[in-house]
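Entry for BUP complex. Fields follow.
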Amino acid sequence: SVTSQPHIALFPSAGMGHLTPFLRLASLLLSHNCKLTLITTKPTVSVAECTHISSFLSKHPEINHIEFHVPPMQHSGSISDDPFFIQFEATSRSAHQIHPLLASLTPPVSAIFSDLVVANGANKVAVDLGVKNYIVSTTSLKFLSLMAYLPILTTSDAAKLVDGAAEIEIPGLTPLPISSIPPPFFNADHGFTATLVSNAKALPFCNGILMNTFESFEPETLSAINNKRALSNLPSILPIGPLETYGLNMNGQTRYLPWLNDQPAESVVFLSFGSRMAMSKDQIKELSDGLERSGYRFLWVLKTKKVDKDEKEDLGEILSSSFLERTKNRGMVIKEWVNQQDILGNAAIGGFVSHCGWNSVMEAAGNGVPVLAWPQHGDQRTNAEVLEKAGLGIWDATWGWGGQRLVKQDEIQRKISELMTDEKLKSKAKSVGDEAKKATGNGGTSKNTILETIESLKQ
Ligand code: BUP
């Protein structure tokens, strides 16, 4: 039967980095007249997820909401104590249980759009219901390629190869330096690795992989995969980014936007390390010293805990009162949730010191803001490579993974000055921004791809 309104079930997994692209995609799909069911896990790991889900749903009462109770793991196979990893594993294990919840919906669902972390369960349910299944990727295409290849890399022969080599070769793609491979990947028994391996095996059975990226940002990897020169078992990679904000203002009146509006154009450094990065006190001290010595105006989102509800200290307990006093006229440090998209879109921002979570990279790209990459964990070193190659930013790979070594204030000062003064970088970043806008505008590659995908669900 032909339906003019596809009914899409969206199934994200834990963390703001995973939820955000799904909510952005939801808003895009609504604007193209799709019917939506949003599956969210209960409980969420962070307070931020919980508040964003409820505000989003109250803004869009037409969305059908399914709260999926994920049973806590009795015995974690995970060696990790990261609450997000544990939730990935738990959700992955019970993902197939969404079957009865979806089977009873009217109108019936036409497709499931799921996170990679639940790909296996979601794909089985989709096959059983006779509907399509797309993956919504929350990372770079380069890192997705690594995850897609993980089932092969973690077999014992390949793992031996990994130990001795300087890089990892995925046939048909530019090799990945070993230093960018997340350490848990070297252990096939690690809960995070095992979860990714079992779900990556489902990728070839999906109908497509929707990516928050755009053609000109990762052109080589994209053409190698879509032209079957690499990872030829994968379905089509469908770049639909940068996904645009869904226009929620979470904190009403903000302190920082009026302040930014008063600063000269491109004069402020924005610093944020994402929603789940706990920076050490020592590193925070070096960063504050380096930042102060750079002399630039700054807006710094500071976090010291992995999960927001554990964040209890006041600013004064983390940063010295003399630092706060000396910089009060040219800097602002914030501990609450900010609207990062609004900040990156503000004319006062001249550069972004970022952990390179993929959403942040795409937001910088969309706004043409140059990035100083300071990747910390997971996909972030790979993302940093991608953004450097695309001309969006600079990166000192010797800074290592987050916490691997203390990055000193003079290194930080030097890199921030480079970020704020390099004219070539500035103009390259601007042209990345122009390309991004072209991709999502009428007739653009990302816009056409999402329109074609929606069209294909109408049959
Ligand atoms: Br913190 C923070 N405000 O205060 P990433 C983040 N964000 O809007 P992450 C805010 O959350 P993973 C804040 O703009 C981005 O859209 C930010 O996602 C927004 O990194 C999102 O950048 C964070 O992908 O997630 O949170 O480390 O590591 O899972 O990618």
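NOTE: The chain has a mean pLDDT of 92.
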